Each structure stands twice: as structure tokens, then as C-alpha cells.
């Protein structure tokens, strides 16, 4: 009776469902909000991590997907489609299984992490690798959904945003009020749109006394919002956010402006440094794109843009196991020892 029931049941009165809606869930949400001691020390603030990698398929997409696939099911859809840099496709594929639907996914060829490809495959999705980037995949997916009987479950689907806004509810429910600042990585810009909506709704109903400033960070090689124009050939090691023309661009700018926040960029080097810090200092293993939020916070703090003593939440969006190459790359190879305690102790520096 104490099990978390998934975001639709937990926040039913704030979501577009009725008593008859056939809820498709893997009991997503209810993710940990973890105090980050080292980041707090570095910034002079009270920093928390919203660990979205703890969702059923390992990313925040599950919050949106339970809503989008539930709605598709309610409408009688038999197939769903998405474009993806990997996490959306993994999530769509899993929820389609629960709903008894066919799932088609379009991914940029050679540019999605192995763990995510493995998920789409094992959940039984129909995968097409597209000779193009994410933006091309999304154009193709939109076109297919207009011409054929298949529901689009990218974040341009409003039900995705509805589901994802629940992360803000959870943050406020855990902290007792909205934080001063909320920090997110930005790719297609659906998630920053969703968080902002969630915070605004809680403030409107008096469940929070205020809204936070929204800070979003793009990877430098894929930073169209920062540049003020689409990026034709986006690049970054953070493949999840390798996006040159975000679908929710205007909503992201609105979240930034209405909250007196900012949208800035972080380099791949800054992303990887935050990625290693999170794992080795905070014990939280995330995928590179997720570390963009933390890299951004550290950058903003260094620039003096963050007043000390503020309460800050960084969302870390995906599990590190999705893309383990970056954990192994550059790390020393473990040494091999015989089955001998003294030899092992010597190698461990204990002898
Ligand atoms: N972090 C991760 C791990 C992601 O997978 C994504 C987006 C983002 C951040 C950015 O979120 O797009 O709402 O601004 N991944 C999408 C996908 C594009 O296809 O999985 P956003």
C-alpha cells in the first residue's frame, strides 16, 4: 500500500485524465531528490539533485510517456512513432509494450548511445536509423504521423509536457516550497517548458509560494537558443542533446524570460568534468547530457550569477548506464591479480 503508483495516479487531479482513462504506467516518477554536499560547498548554496535516471527506463522521458501513451490508448491508437536521440525511443518502446501497441522509432544513424539502442531493440521497437541528425528525424516523424495512422509521442505532443510537469510538483512536495533556481539541460526544450508549467501551476493553486528562476544549458556545439539561430550541423559528446533546432524553442525562451532566468552553453569539456564530479564526489552516475545542468550551475556560480545561500535544484535527466563509454574512456585499466590476498593487498596499497 505504500508503493508509489506512478505520476498519473499520484497527481491525477492535475492531469488530463478521467476515471475511465486506461492508464498505461510503469510507476514512473517518485524519483530521489538528493542533497549534493560537494556542489553545495563549491557554490555556497544548498544544491539538490533530482535524479531522473531512477525512472523505469532510466530517464525523465517516462513521465511524459506514461501520459502520451495513455492518451494514445484512450484515442484507440494502435501504433506510436517518435524521433529520438535515444531516451525518448527507449521510453516509447517500453510504454508501447505495456499498451499493446506497435512502436516505430527514428534515430540519427551512429549518434545514439549503445544502452539506448539496446533498450529499443529489446522492447521490440521497429527502428529506422536515419541518414541525418535528430532534427531531420523529427521532421520525418511529424510527416509520417500526418499521413499515416500513427500517434506522434515526441514532446511536441502536449500530453508529454503534461506528464513531465510532475517533476516540479515532486520537488516542491519534497522541499516544502519551490527552490530559488532550477537548472536543466536543454535539447529539444520540452523539459524546461514542462518544469516551468509545473512550477507555475503549483504557484497558482497556492501549493508553492513562488516560482524559481529557470536556468537551462545547451552544449556549445548544439546551442541554437544561445546563438539565436538554428545550428545546421550540431555536435557534442552529449548525444542526447545534440539538437540544432529545438521544437519548443519559444517556450524555453518564455520560461527563461518570465522566470528571470537564463539559457547559456557549456563546453563538452565542462560537461565531462561535471560528469566525473557527479559520480566520483556525489555518488550519482548520470549520462553526459545530464551533467550539462551541473556544469552550467558551476559556470554560473563562477561568473557570480548565483547568490550564496540560494536553494538550487539540478535535474540530472538520464542514467549513466545508458552511455558507459564515457565512464571507461580515459580511466586506467584495472590490474589483474592472482587469487592471493597478499598480492591483492599490495596492489590495493594496503600491504
Ligand atoms: N537529457 C537527456 C538525458 C535527454 O535524453 C534529453 C532529450 C534532454 C536532456 C533534453 O531534454 O529535449 O526536453 O530539452 N532527449 C530527447 C530524446 C531529445 O530523443 O531522447 P529536452
UniProtKB/TrEMBL annotation:
<feature type="domain" description="Tryptophan synthase beta chain-like PALP">
    <location>
        <begin position="24"/>
        <end position="318"/>
    </location>
</feature>
<keyword id="KW-0028">Amino-acid biosynthesis</keyword>
<comment type="similarity">
    <text>Belongs to the threonine synthase family.</text>
</comment>
<dbReference type="InterPro" id="IPR050147">
    <property type="entry name" value="Ser/Thr_Dehydratase"/>
</dbReference>
<comment type="function">
    <text>Catalyzes the gamma-elimination of phosphate from L-phosphohomoserine and the beta-addition of water to produce L-threonine.</text>
</comment>
<comment type="pathway">
    <text>Amino-acid biosynthesis; L-threonine biosynthesis; L-threonine from L-aspartate: step 5/5.</text>
</comment>
<dbReference type="InterPro" id="IPR000634">
    <property type="entry name" value="Ser/Thr_deHydtase_PyrdxlP-BS"/>
</dbReference>
<dbReference type="GO" id="GO:0004795">
    <property type="term" value="F:threonine synthase activity"/>
</dbReference>
<protein>
    <recommendedName>
        <fullName>Threonine synthase</fullName>
        <ecNumber>4.2.3.1</ecNumber>
    </recommendedName>
</protein>
<dbReference type="InterPro" id="IPR001926">
    <property type="entry name" value="TrpB-like_PALP"/>
</dbReference>
<dbReference type="InterPro" id="IPR004450">
    <property type="entry name" value="Thr_synthase-like"/>
</dbReference>
<keyword id="KW-0791">Threonine biosynthesis</keyword>
<dbReference type="InterPro" id="IPR036052">
    <property type="entry name" value="TrpB-like_PALP_sf"/>
</dbReference>
<dbReference type="Pfam" id="PF00291">
    <property type="entry name" value="PALP"/>
</dbReference>
<keyword id="KW-0456">Lyase</keyword>
<keyword id="KW-0663">Pyridoxal phosphate</keyword>
<dbReference type="InterPro" id="IPR026260">
    <property type="entry name" value="Thr_Synthase_bac/arc"/>
</dbReference>
Amino acid at each position: 500500500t505504500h508503493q508509489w503508483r506512478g505520476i498519473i495516479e499520484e497527481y491525477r487531479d492535475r492531469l488530463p485524465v478521467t476515471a475511465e482513462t486506461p492508464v498505461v504506467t510503469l510507476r514512473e516518477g517518485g524519483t530521489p531528490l538528493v542533497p549534493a554536499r560537494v556542489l553545495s560547498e563549491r557554490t555556497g548554496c544548498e544544491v539538490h539533485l533530482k535524479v531522473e535516471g531512477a525512472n523505469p527506463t532510466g530517464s525523465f522521458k517516462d513521465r511524459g510517456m506514461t501520459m502520451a501513451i495513455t492518451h494514445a490508448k484512450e484515442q484507440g491508437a494502435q501504433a506510436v512513432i517518435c524521433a529520438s536521440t535515444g531516451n525518448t525511443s527507449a521510453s516509447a518502446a517500453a510504454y508501447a509494450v505495456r499498451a499493446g501497441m506497435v512502436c516505430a522509432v527514428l534515430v540519427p544513424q551512429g549518434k545514439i548511445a549503445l544502452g539506448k539502442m539496446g533498450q529499443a531493440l529489446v522492447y521490440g521497437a521497429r527502428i529506422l536509423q536515419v541518414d541525418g541528425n535528430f532534427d531531420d528525424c523529427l521532421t520525418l516523424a511529424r510527416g509520417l504521423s500526418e499521413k499515416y495512422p500513427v500517434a506522434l509521442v515526441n514532446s511536441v505532443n502536449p500530453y508529454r509536457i503534461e506528464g513531465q510537469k510532475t517533476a516540479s510538483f515532486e520537488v516542491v512536495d519534497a522541499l516544502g516550497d519551490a527552490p530559488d533556481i532550477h537548472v536543466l539541460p536543454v535539447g529539444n526544450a520540452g523539459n524546461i517548458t514542462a518544469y516551468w508549467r509545473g512550477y507555475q501551476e503549483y504557484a497558482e493553486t497556492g501549493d508553492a509560494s513562488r516560482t524559481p528562476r529557470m536556468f537551462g544549458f545547451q552544449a556549445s556545439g548544439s546551442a541554437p537558443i544561445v546563438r539565436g539561430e538554428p545550428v545546421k550541423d550540431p555536435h557534442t559528446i552529449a548525444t542526447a542533446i545534440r539538437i540544432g533546432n529545438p521544437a519548443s524553442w519559444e517556450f524555453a525562451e518564455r520560461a527563461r524570460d518570465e522566470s528571470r532566468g537564463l539559457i547559456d552553453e557549456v563546453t563538452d569539456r565542462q560537461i565531462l568534468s561535471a560528469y566525473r564530479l557527479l559520480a566520483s564526489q556525489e555518488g550519482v552516475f548520470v549520462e553526459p547530457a545530464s551533467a550539462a545542468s551541473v556544469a552550467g550551475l558551476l559556470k554560473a556560480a563562477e561568473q557570480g550569477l548565483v547568490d550564496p545561500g540560494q536553494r538550487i535544484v539540478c535535474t540530472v535527466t538520464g542514467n549513466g548506464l545508458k552511455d558507459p563509454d564515457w565512464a571507461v574512456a580515459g580511466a586506467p585499466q584495472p590490474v589483474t591479480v592472482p587469487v592471493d590476498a597478499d598480492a591483492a593487498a599490495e596492489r590495493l596499497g594496503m600491504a
